[in-house]
Amino acid sequence: MGYRALPIPIARPFSTYRPLLVRIRPAEPVEPEWPASPGIEKKQREILEYRRHQRDLISFFSRLGSTQTRENSWRPHHSLHRPRSPKELTLSALIAAGAHMGHARSSTRPPFLPYIYGYRSGIAIIDLDQTLPHLRRAANVTRAIAAADGTVLFVGTTEALGPAVRKAAERMGENGFHLDSRWIPGLLTNPFEVFGEETSRTTNVKPDLIVFLNPLQNLKALRECAIARVPTIAITDSNTDPRIVLYPIPANDESVRTAELIVGALSIAGREGLQVRDERRSAQAKMNQQAEQGREQEMAEREGQNIGQ
Amino acid sequence: MPISLASSSLTLREGLGFTSNMAAPRPPPILPKPESPSFFTAQANFYDTLTGLESTKRQIRQILTRQYLLPISTKRRAILKPKDRAMWQPVDQLSGTLNHTLRTSHYRQLIGVLNEIRVFRSIAMAGRLETLAEEIDTVLSQFERPDKERLLANKAKAIQMDEYGRTYAVGRRKESHARVWVIPTKMPQEEARKRAFPTFIPPVTEVLINNTPLSRYFDNPADREKVMLPFKVTGTVGKYNVFAIVRGGGTTGQAGAIALGISKGLKVHFPNGKPLLRQVDLLRRDPRMVERKKTGLAKARKRYTWVKR
């Protein structure tokens, strides 16, 4: 895109807009054909011109002024599309996501008391100095399970959590699964009925790790995990007993941003585990190849000796 | 009799009954992982299709926004609404296509997303993005009925005027059905010219029902009004005559059937009257029928007297 020395464009409301400058873009897009009266066509053309002008202004002025631009600032969709790895996560990121906000004082579960920093404005403040190590521990578990080629199921049964669990499963490729709708009772304890005879016999129907983003809505599922001996990770809030899961992460379960942050970190750890698995496999394959070659050489030498003898 | 270990030459294991030729339990077979990331929803085909369509919709919206075709005002969106009816596969056919029995709510969700993509297609066509429209077609054609062309060609037979300027229509109400001919009256001046004295004769709508005039066929003035309402609403009293053959039902049903038949014929004679007739609901076949009697009740809704003991 070549920039020329032009007079600075002055923005006007689109109804009185007259173009003052030649467009900076290299090619002219085709004018759309609107199947309507000439009046509406003219109005639509004006709107298009206005929108193009706005875009040109933004691109022109973004080069000038502050070094903090759209590209290098946090935007709301980053929590879903650009999560941070557990090593990069900081306390300030957790606070910005609202992970420290618990529930009302009266609904505090006594087993959760060790994770509470205090109470303010009637709600519990979760101690993030404990949240971060718990999150890193859960990430280590996910990484190790993925390195052993284990499958991870991400469960977030509300509509708001759907995109986060789907992305997390995508990050883990073949080993990642998501559940963004109702947990079907008997999924782990009665797979024969849920999936059918053939599928339950020929496919691995039990995940090796399940991550719950809203455990309070999935208590029956957690019970099934305990019966089926499946390790669980969950975001536990101050109104939840943290002992219902194997690896609790004390944080705010009502904040979507927190859930996206946590599940993003866990899925990145899972992805790292899969990389470790692939590296191990390729190293193993190399060793096997070398062993094979060594054996072949030995056989050839022995035959040579026999022939010599 | 218990073996005395001190005196025997058995090891503890052998004493407890473990023999050396007992095989170690085999580890469980490693089954393949499930293919779909939404396997644990137990409705993978549906959820994968839905998420796939929604991501397609998002991509299309992004492209249209980049071309400045979106956002679009409601007025222009109404202009660009697709003209043809959408011909999606019915529930059973779509269940076959997806190889999964669809619930009604799930079917409706899919159809909703498909209709939204169809609207984007017409916007793309208006913006002359033909390749994008073709790509959208390839996606949507998987969900359309195979006999779509044939069904679209089967348009409802429009009511036509014959060579004498008469229209024929059928009206139904409750158990009655009426065959109605709407015939324009001759110009009064013509009539007057034929007579001896050239006086002005005001035009009159003559209604013949089963060969009897309206006033003699219907005793109830409300029924007579119902029959004349289409002419009154459109201001065409005296312009047309009516000949009707009506069978079935009672007085109210027959009057309603005749009124519907007249309205259907009148909209062909007088197209400007169509919105006026629609405002008064005269173009709608009243779907109310006599409700069936239910067991345990005296009539359709009437209950027997409640007895305390």
DSSP strand tally of chain B: 5
Q: Any guess at the CATH architecture of the domain at 78-284 in chain A? A: 3-Layer(aba) Sandwich
- The biggest beta sheet of chain B, please? 5 strands, mixed
- Element order of chain A: H for helix, E for strand: HHHEEEHEHEHHEHEEH
Specify which chain pair forms the largest interface.
Answer: A-B, 35 and 24 residues
How would you characterize this protein structure?
The complex is a heterodimer of chains A (309) and B (309). By secondary structure, chain A is of the alpha/beta class. Chain A has a domain at 78-284: Rossmann fold, CATH 3.40.50.10490. Chain A has helices at residues 38-62, 78-81, 91-96, 128-147, 162-171, 191-195, 197-202, 219-227, 256-308, and strands spanning 101-104, 116-120, 123-126, 152-155, 176-179, 209-212, 232-236, 247-250. In chain A, the strands form 2 sheets. Chain A has a 5-stranded parallel sheet. In chain A, strands 1-3-2 form a 3-stranded antiparallel sheet. In chain A, helix 4 runs parallel beside helix 9 and helix 5 runs parallel beside helix 9 (256-308). Chain A is extended. Chain B is α+β, with helices and mostly antiparallel strands and 309 residues long. In chain B, 43% of the residues lie in helices and 9% in strands. Chain B has 12 helices and 5 strands. In chain B, a hairpin with a 2-residue loop joins strand 3 (207-209) and strand 4. In chain B, helix 2 (44-66) runs parallel beside helix 5 (104-126) and helix 10 runs parallel beside helix 11 (251-269). The radius of gyration of chain B is 37 Å and the shape is elongated. The mean pLDDT of chain B is 89. Chain A binds chain B through residues 29-36, 40, 44, 48, 51-52, 151, 153, 166, 169-170, 174-181, 184, 187, 194-195, 202-205, 207, and chain B through 30-34, 37-43, 47, 51, 67-69, 75-76, 79-80, 126-128.
